[in-house]
Design brief:
By secondary structure, the chain is α+β, with helices and mostly antiparallel strands. Helix content is about 20%, strand content about 30%. The radius of gyration is 17 Å and the shape is globular. It starts with 9 loop residues before the first strand and ends in a 24-residue tail after the last strand.
C-alpha cells in the first residue's frame, strides 16, 4: 500500500469511469415536483451561477475557470431542473459530440435537495434524454469529491465501472474560484499551514 502525499494547496480524488452500453428497459418516470427545462441559448453567467449552486459543495470548479468564449465552446446540451415556483435547483449537461455516444458531463441538484429521493426521477429523466436514436454508449465520470450517493446511484441505474484514476489539482477555494467556506467536508490546507 502506498500513500501519495499532496503538496499544501492541492486536492486529490479518485475518479471512477462508468458506462452503459445497453439501452435500459423503459420504466415509468417517478412523480416529481420538478421539471427539466432545456436551455437553448446558454448565457455563460447564468450557467456559472447554476453550476456553482449545484456543485460548489463538491468542489466543481472547471467551468468557473473558463472565460466566456471557452465556456460557450465547451457547453453541451444543458437542462435546468426547475421547481414549481420556477427556481432552478439542479442541472444536467450532456455531450453528444462523439458519434454513437453520450457523455453525462454534469448531473446534480442543489445540496439542500440531496437525500430526499429525487435521484430516481433525475436518473429516469437523464436516461430518457441520453438514449436517443443512434446512441450506443452512455458514459460518465464521478469522483470521491462528489456526493457519497453518486457512485452507488449510477451503479443502481445500470452503469458499470470500467476504469479508475487518481486526480490532483489546486484547491479552487485558494484561487478564489470558490468561497473558502464551501465543501466543509474537505478542510482547506494552504501553503501557509504548518
Amino acid at each position: 500500500m502506498a500513500l501519495i502525499q499532496l503538496e499544501p494547496g492541492q486536492i486529490g480524488t479518485v475518479v471512477t469511469y462508468l458506462e452503459m452500453t445497453d439501452r435500459p428497459k423503459l420504466r415509468p418516470v417517478p412523480d416529481s415536483p420538478f421539471r427539466l427545462q432545456r436551455w437553448r441559448d446558454v448565457d455563460p453567467a447564468k450557467y456559472r451561477l447554476l453550476f456553482k449552486r449545484v456543485g460548489a459543495r463538491w468542489l466543481w470548479y472547471s467551468r468557473l475557470a473558463m472565460d466566456d468564449q471557452r465556456l460557450s465552446a465547451s457547453i453541451g446540451e444543458v437542462h435546468a431542473v426547475v421547481d414549481r415556483s420556477g427556481i432552478e435547483v439542479g442541472m444536467l449537461e450532456l455531450d453528444f459530440g462523439k458519434d454513437g455516444e453520450c457523455l453525462i458531463r454534469f448531473l446534480g441538484l442543489v445540496p439542500e435537495l440531496a437525500g430526499r429521493g429525487h435521484g430516481k426521477w433525475m436518473f429516469a429523466q437523464t436516461l430518457a434524454l441520453t438514449w436517443r436514436k443512434g446512441v450506443d454508449r452512455v458514459h460518465v465520470n464521478t469522483c470521491t469529491l462528489d456526493h457519497p450517493a453518486a457512485l452507488p446511484s449510477y451503479l443502481r441505474a445500470g452503469f458499470t465501472a470500467y476504469n479508475r484514476a487518481f486526480e490532483s489539482f489546486p484547491d479552487p477555494r485558494l484561487s478564489g474560484l470558490l468561497p473558502l467556506d464551501v465543501a466543509p467536508q474537505l478542510p482547506v490546507i494552504s501553503s501557509s499551514a504548518s
